Amino acid sequence: MKHLSKLPNIETTIFTVMSGLANKYEAINLSQGFPNFKSDQKLIDFVSKAMNSGYNQYALMGGNMELREAIAKKFDLLYESTYHPETEITITAGATQAIFDVITAFVRANDEVIIIKPAYDCYEPSVLINGGKPVSIQLEAPNYQINWIDVKQKLSSKTKMIIINTPHNPSGTIFSEADMLQLQELTKNTNIIVLSDEVYEHIVFDGEKHQSACLFPDLKTRSFITASFGKTFHNTGWKMGYCCAPKVLMEEFRKIHQFNVFSVNHPVQKGLADYMQDSNTYLELSQFYQKKRDLFLSLIQGSRFKFKPSQGTYFQVLDYSEITQEYDVDYAKRLTVENGLASIPLSVFNENKLDNKVLRFCFAKTDDTLKKAADILNKI
Ligand SMILES: Cc1ncc(COP(=O)(O)O)c(C=O)c1O
After folding, report:
1. Confidence check: pLDDT of 116 > 90
2. pTM for the full predicted model
């Protein structure tokens, strides 16, 4: 059978490639972004209880109401921002599904979507499959600061959406309040939708504050915020997330959501709702991961890798330019095969595969795993 691919240039993701290599060579896997420790037993018990208490049929299309209420309460507590549980919050199968539905609900053929590179890998294919045109803004290593003049220059009458991600995967940088104000100013009086991917909102270090799109009144009116329970509660395999937006935008989102998935895992939703009644479950996350970041960085202080401490997320980028000038994909593979440590080369997230000799390491791992990884890095 002959067919024309709708996404001819999309290959198997680097995450699959590197995890596959890590398994094959029994390497320590700091490549894919998932913890190698268990979720809180309390959460697992809440989910089991929900399954045993009859929460096994379809949830409401927008999601279990108690969970939506818990999320609304969290927005109020953290940002003094109101999202109505009934009309402005939807529970999704991970942030990935939310992102796909936001893009599908709004992007038409030839619409332009601004994507800031390095970028998480699901944005661009979702734009392309809808006939949209990705317009890239490349950030420069090692600071990965956004130049808003660049963004302004790339705006056009065709710009439908801007996708931002703070804290940022893969660089581990965060947007400042000034960044968000610039974005608000640039989009004022336009019909541009902002997709604010905030999956790492609870992982921000050194006392900094997460700058959610909902904190900026004009920005909030045009923004979808996407979030991931997998990242927050150490269970990426459950694929649970949510998104929030003002009612008029959410109405359009749900037109896609109801035919894409209709509703998502009900007992997990109920379990999450019960678990989130205790706000410490998410408030303590930054401290938890800051300890891991600090441990990892203190251990590799004397290595030949150069770094700026991650400001958020559970990723740390390391510059290997003093060690070799190899292409980063080749070096990441060699590090896995020869040294037994898997990472992700940053070029795969960049425009035109720009190679700055930088690898991304995930430190959502047990202290023991981090120590073993550091031992390898120190010997190079
Ligand atoms: C920036 C970013 N957005 C979205 C996702 C996807 O989240 P989920 O696993 O909840 O679909 C990830 C996962 O790595 C991510 O890093």
Report:
1. yes
2. 0.97
